[in-house]
Amino acid sequence: MSTKNYFFSFLLIYFCFHIFGFILSFVLEPFVYWSADTVFNIKYTFESNGYGSGDSTYAYLEMFWRLCFSLILAFPLAILTKKYKLANTPGLSYSFLLLLRLYLAFFMLIYGIGKILPMQFPPLSLSRLAQPYGESSPMGLAWTFLQYSPAYAAFSGFAEAIGALLLLNRKTVTLGSIILTGVISNIVMMNFCYDIPVKISSFHMLLASLILLYSDRKRLYNFFIANKTTEPKKDIYSFKNKQDEKVLNAVKMSLKGILALGIIAFFGVIYMSNSSSETPKLYGVYETTIPNQSKFSKFIFEKGNWGSIIYADKKEVFFDLELDSLKKTISLKSTDTKKPATEKFTFTQQPNGLILQTENGETIHLNKKSREDFLLINRGFHWVNETPFNR
Q1: 333-368 pLDDT, tens per residue?
Q2: Three-state SS for 318?
Q3: How far apart are the first and last CA of the chain?
Q4: Residue 154 in contact with residue 116, Cβ under 8 Å?
């Protein structure tokens, strides 16, 4: 058993664990919680769902166990591949590289199309526009940067989608890998530098892209560095029997079809979940006319019947909105399940604002600020700038 054979077996098992982790998660769950308490002495409570974070405690511990099991299982796999003379056969390496190509293509198409439509970076919410820069998180700042310009987000999305599509054709895999290595490297740097909790996932995608490049290292070295003529990439399989070639092509088309259906289903679910986002009657940002006279500073009503309250002490609470147009009442229920709270008001709409009355009789006069009143929205694009407009 050679080191090269063992390392290949390790990578094959590890990426199978990573890509199909959702199937094996129930097997690893007992190991995760046992090691958290016994090995790593983690005393705080954590859950497996991560609440949208890919870098949760559970995710890191699960990655640790995938790594451990891969290191262990690589030994018998390397021995078996050597025994049955599979170690240096093109079939095994081709299957592994095909797995990486489909894995990268699937996620890069999802992220790419999500930026083009746009879904990953929708237009800036009123809550984000009303929030001071200094009160935003590093991730919030990065999201604001990308949400501001749909054109720039779409440009990034096209780069991801084009690289992914090139991976689906054997002749353009190297070009697709080059494009995606650059694109994903930028994503990884953003995730690490702006504390975006997709560091584990993006790192594995970058590793997969680098492995694809490494598989074609000799041709890349000759072309980019040695300034030598490079030979065309040879077919891994050369079929004498046309029937066998037809079977392989059918399998590849089936895999591409499954990939396409998975992407369509993913965006179908997102579209259905966002289709009910209607514009509420009170849509806008409302600021108190007399600062420091109330515990409230701003009321923000978003599309989809949600929003936020910014209190005088700068605390922001997000809520779900229930509005009764006949009784002229609104009920704002906090979305924080750990600190449930409800604020109830009666309201009177004014031409340029809103009057709210609390349950204890306090009257709050509010001026309305529309989306177009924010400089970030109304500044627009200028071909000519006599002086830098950097605020």
Answers
A1: 998 877 788 889 999 998 889 999 988 888 999 999
A2: strand
A3: 63
A4: yes
